[in-house]
Amino acid sequence: MPKVSAQYKEEKRNHILESALKCFGEKGYQATIIDDIVKDSNISKGAIYNYFESKEEIYLQLLKKRTNTFFEEMDEVNAHLSSAKEKLANLFKRFKKQELKEDDQQTMRVYIEFWLFGSRQEDLRKILAERYNRFIDYIVNIIVEGQQSGEIKKEIDPQNISRIFWAIRDGNVLHYSFLGEEEQYRIAWDTIEEMFLNYVQQ
Amino acid sequence: MPKVSAQYKEEKRNHILESALKCFGEKGYQATIIDDIVKDSNISKGAIYNYFESKEEIYLQLLKKRTNTFFEEMDEVNAHLSSAKEKLANLFKRFKKQELKEDDQQTMRVYIEFWLFGSRQEDLRKILAERYNRFIDYIVNIIVEGQQSGEIKKEIDPQNISRIFWAIRDGNVLHYSFLGEEEQYRIAWDTIEEMFLNYVQQ
Amino acid sequence: MPKVSAQYKEEKRNHILESALKCFGEKGYQATIIDDIVKDSNISKGAIYNYFESKEEIYLQLLKKRTNTFFEEMDEVNAHLSSAKEKLANLFKRFKKQELKEDDQQTMRVYIEFWLFGSRQEDLRKILAERYNRFIDYIVNIIVEGQQSGEIKKEIDPQNISRIFWAIRDGNVLHYSFLGEEEQYRIAWDTIEEMFLNYVQQ
Amino acid sequence: MPKVSAQYKEEKRNHILESALKCFGEKGYQATIIDDIVKDSNISKGAIYNYFESKEEIYLQLLKKRTNTFFEEMDEVNAHLSSAKEKLANLFKRFKKQELKEDDQQTMRVYIEFWLFGSRQEDLRKILAERYNRFIDYIVNIIVEGQQSGEIKKEIDPQNISRIFWAIRDGNVLHYSFLGEEEQYRIAWDTIEEMFLNYVQQ
DNA sequence: TATGAATGAGTATTCATTCAT
DNA sequence: AATGAATGAATACTCATTCAT
Asked: How confident is the model at residue A1 (pLDDT cuts 50, 70, 90)?
């Protein structure tokens, strides 16, 4: 019988993850030291290691949680949308307003860093590949749906276009996180949306 | 053995840069330790520091050299091309065949890592921003030229589309360096080319 | 083992300082490497850096502590002494018996080394200058007091004579730390005392 | 048969020593790197090692040369002086005006540093002890001469007072090289002269 | 469970000395 | 003799992880 409730543990865990996200986003995964998370979270080093095995695990859990949240949010909204067109529009809308949510920017920055980092470590590769596929499938499903409903050109390869979509997203976030110009970022997304929809729509 | 020729020094310098590129590309800039470069280059630690002031300088010189090479190559080819259309086509062609040149992949991977890394250090920001602007201007010039010749839509904002172009490029490289599927990468570039040209052309 | 008492930390700190003094005294500040202190103290390198920021800080803290101890001791004794004469006599007495306390010899040796070293670094200069002034003022006060009570010649410049006093002290310690002849050292102090008192007294 | 004249070699040697003195005086013996001497002397590193075995030897030769120069100078002047009183006065005069000769200040600074440094290395100890004794003897001879002529008190111990003299000198130089106040330094020497002569004279 | 002190392998950089030319 | 490129041991400091309390 545990001394503390499962809920208590869950909350503590989340608290650590939130601090970690903040630190990773601000300084980068590699540059963040555990003491940064200790300071930000006000949780002792030992306690952090009670909840997570390593710095790497913290990152991975963070990634997992954020990914889940993303899809939960999207699924919730998509439940009320019937056409592929609307779903794509919704997706773009989400990115366009995303800059306002600093958390997401940080997540993505960290995610890109880890992508580079992870591409060199077999154990991370697998986890990241799974995550990547989830994102790919998300767009693939919308595209296929749109092709069935006649909204989207039949000759489009769903896999290919989905990969391109996420590549554009990541490239844009990468540049934006460096450039830091919100207005330009928004305009870029408008253009990307137009270009992308022009290309895929019937 | 002193009083060596300028050529000897230049070659040694390049030798170090090549090893550094290899190491940075394989393990990442941050994860590469000087001893990796020592081992790969067979040049002693002290000698490396005779040629470069720091690990950071090695990186920066690498970036500079690669950037210069890129523009020299492009300028050389562009000299024989008159239309914006041809120049863009040439650019896409370059990226499509790039996978075959492992060096470039590594440079870009390292470059993306440094982008993330550099966005948090003021001195690096400046250098990276300059480099970024050089790339931006390259496309801007082609677009403006195309608008004047009537090849490209007047309503396109050259700055905006140039930024998008490089964001797509970087996003694609980022993903590809992780995924490692050459064939898919080529196909993606074909699609991107089509999508992009559809959008900008008259 | 955390959540240790303030006393525990204070003791550990002192332990490190004692080892550092020993090492600095034996090999010199510059020649002492952190591993020497590690070996002597049996405290890990990391732990040492938990207590002190740098080798320089260890030195400075050592200096501060020793300086404080010196003045505390002197003030305590002086509280029972009313005349300038007695105070000076007490001061000389302290130096004469000092050879028996190896610690002080080492401190002074290290202090002299740092003096040379520090005269070339602005940040150290300030700290050392403050410490120097404290010593200067100590004698100045005694001299002025003696002049008021008629014990000491009015024409003596307190600042000047105080500087000379400490110069003699340091010169003597410097030579003695090299020569290592205790008996001679004591005799030298007797002579210095006589010469000095002859000169300043009414 | 040598390729270059002995004179050429001697000049080159001196050139190196002069640069070394300048560097050691400015940065300290330990802090000076061979490249500082290379830069200052415009002589290549290899050439320096043709003339001297090590950095330490350069220092030792420097010390030797300076010591010789000092005694040559003093002996030359003393040749024209008959009384101990005059010889002492001449000695003080030399120190009082010495501040104007930056070279000597530097030599002494270096010499003090080496004294500390040397007290921990047996091979240096011997050399420094010899040098020290030469200085001690110099004053001893004057004192003995003065005692014989009745100028100086019989009860003065020549060895003891000679040691004290040099201790005062070194202490004063040490402080002065840190404080850098020429005027004060001169005043201090006046006072020391008065105090010292009062004490030793009949 | 929580704490935070302790550990020590790891890292960039320096510099006296060597030696091929 | 002169050159200066090459060497690599040395060194201050960091930080993920452990573990005694």
From this structure: very low
Q: How far is A56 from chain B (nearest CA, A)?
A: 14
Q: Which residue do the tokens 């050459």 mark?
A: B182
The Cα D65–Cα D55 span in angstroms is 16
Say whether B164 and A172 touch across the interface (CB within 8 A).
Answer: yes
Q: Give strand pairing partners of B152.
A: B201
Q: Exposure of A73 by Cβ count < 10 A (0-12 exposed, 13-18 middle, 19+ buried)?
A: exposed
Q: Is the pLDDT of residue B143 over 50?
A: yes
pLDDT for res B1:
63
- 10 Å CB burial of residue B42 (0-12, 13-18, 19+) is exposed
pLDDT at A162 exceeding the cut of 90: yes
The range of the structural domain enclosing residue B107 comes to: 60-200
Query: Which among C115, C157, C195 is the nearest to D199, CB-wise?
Result: C195
Nucleotides of F under 7 A from a protein CB: 1-21
Which one is predicted more confidently, B100 or B102?
Answer: B102
Query: By C-alpha distance, which of A137, A140, A117 is closest to A127?
Result: A117
Q: Do C167 and D164 touch (CB under 8 A)?
A: no
Domain count, chain A: 2
Give the CA-to-C1' distance from A179 to F17 in angstroms: 36
- D101 and D190 in a single domain? The answer is yes
pLDDT score for B88: 94
Q: Which of A115, A117, A161 sits opposite B191 (nearest CB)?
A: A161
Q: Which residue has the tokens 């020593």?
A: D17
Q: C with B: 3 or more CB pairs under 8 Å?
A: no
Residue with the bigger pLDDT between C36 and D6: it is C36
Roughly how many angstroms between the first and final C-alpha of chain B, as a whole number?
A: 63
Residue B81 vs residues B55, C159, D111: alpha-carbon distances, Å: 39, 84, 73
Mean pLDDT to the nearest integer, D19-28: 91
Do C69 and C146 lie in a common domain? yes
CATH number at residue C124: 1.10.357.10
Clarify whether residues D12 and D59 are in a common domain.
no
Domain check: are D81 and D135 in the same one? yes
Among C115, C163, C188, whose Cβ lies nearest the Cβ of D163?
A: C188
Report CB contact under 8 Å: D188, C172.
no
pTM: 0.87
CB contact under 8 A, D191 and C164: yes
